[in-house]
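Help wanted!
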Amino acid sequence: MGKATGFLEVDRKDRTYDSPAERLKHYREFVIPHDAAGLQGQASRCMNCGIPYCHNGCPVNNQIPDWNHLVYENDWREALDNLHSTNNFPEFTGRICPAPCEAACTLNIVDQPVTIKSIECAIVDKGWKEGWIEPQVPAKKTGKSVAVVGSGPAGLACAQQLARAGHSVTVFEKSDRVGGLLRYGIPDFKLEKHVINRRMVQMEAEGVQFRTSVEVGVTVSVASLKENFDAIVMAGGAEDPRPLDIPGFELPGVRFAMEFLTQQNKRNAGDDEIRAAPRGSLLATGKHVVVIGGGDTGSDCVGTSNRQGALSVTQLEIMPRPPEKEEKALSWPNWPLKLRTSSSHEEGCEREFAVLTKRAVGENDVTGLECVRVEWVNGKMQEVPGSEFTLKADLILLAMGFLVPRKQGLLEQAGVELDPRGNVKGNVVDYKTSVENVFACGDMRRGQSLVVWAIREGRQCARSVDEALMGVSELPR
Ligand SMILES: Cc1cc2nc3c(=O)[nH]c(=O)nc-3n(C[C@H](O)[C@H](O)[C@H](O)COP(=O)(O)OP(=O)(O)OC[C@H]3O[C@@H](n4cnc5c(N)ncnc54)[C@H](O)[C@@H]3O)c2cc1C
Ligand code: SF4
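Answered by r_m:
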């Protein structure tokens, strides 16, 4: 363990941020990391619990107490190897994972969990800086080939594991760049894209081929993949956004969040305006913005709108305001329902809870949003009579989540069975779909989720594919 009395001697201290005034001037990451000594102190707080609940709290089952101990002992290299043994991309999760591990930490019972996510991020960032992260080229090739459809975290993790097992892997991506939602959903201020690029370089050196701007089911057929590859992995994400069925939905200023976020990420990547926004620019500059939806996507719209210079930003959530603090006796070690304030919220935003949107109003474009307050009685929503109000709105961003994978093209041609929710049917034991030699993982199989779950599914799916192709697999589950 770190230090027997570490948690008694050292207070929890997490990474800090640049001030909102400073960070709003740009789209770069703004987290100020710990110095090495500070990090060792934080790692020393890990108690190496008899039952480390953080293990199960973490979807990739990171061996958290082990690497905390190694950081405390100043053995960063070993800590990095340990971390990589369960997680292909700790630099993604160390930046954007909501850290269910910290909710499960025993020290969270007293609201002082170990700063697990920051330590994870520091280990891998140091690994890159020191040049310790190198391609792991397989000693021999198997002669088998796998097509991975989709280059989000699920497809990337799956592809990397399969390439390391010696298979020839080609990743097909319909966008012009690799990364899925890491690239075009999540803003640069949460995850700068050079972090994805350097992994791509590593993966290419390991033998993975990337084919961008190729949509399977449109540019190339599923039949041709079946003919040319021994197995297909579908990791296309859950792309169909939840629509808003209200009058005025068709007004030009009512737009899906992903259109808005993708455009800004493309601008940040250096694309000119036409390439970033082929159907016309969508900017919050000088506008009253209303974001509908209280999750990560909504919060990212808030941060992006403020950086673009919105006049005001209001975020609406239909559910009631959650409590500021959870009831530990009822929730620990599980992920609690409580009010979460992101760095984007801190930068300036009105948050309204228990609000139902009724109508977007305006002549040629949107000028306002009619709403009503609701209350929830026995899980049922009721409008509060007389509570109607109108918000000024020049831009309404729909961030109410994603429903299911898109059916056209890939899924239609593959002919895979869907589950009752409309995702690709496949279990978490073998990730097989109803069609032979076709596997599915990530949001396409489990529905809208988290990066860390996508990595887990990609890794586990790779093992199943390897087993199906070779009879046995040495890849970890
Ligand atoms: C705005 C936003 C913010 C988020 N923030 C967070 C966060 O902070 N933390 C977190 O953990 N999670 C976050 N998430 C969720 C997370 O990004 C997803 O759960 C995760 O990316 C899913 O990974 P995936 O690989 O399954 O799919 P995706 O990342 O969606 O990748 C799927 C890829 O497949 C490609 N594709 C689809 N069909 C085809 C086809 N037919 N041919 C070729 N390519 C195809 C798509 O273009 C896409 O690039 C966020 C999501 C959004 C939208
Ligand atoms: S991946 Fe997420 S849950 Fe796992 S250790 Fe890292 S921050 Fe915690």
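OP: Thanks! One thing I noticed: The CA atoms of residues 60 and 456 lie 5 Å apart.
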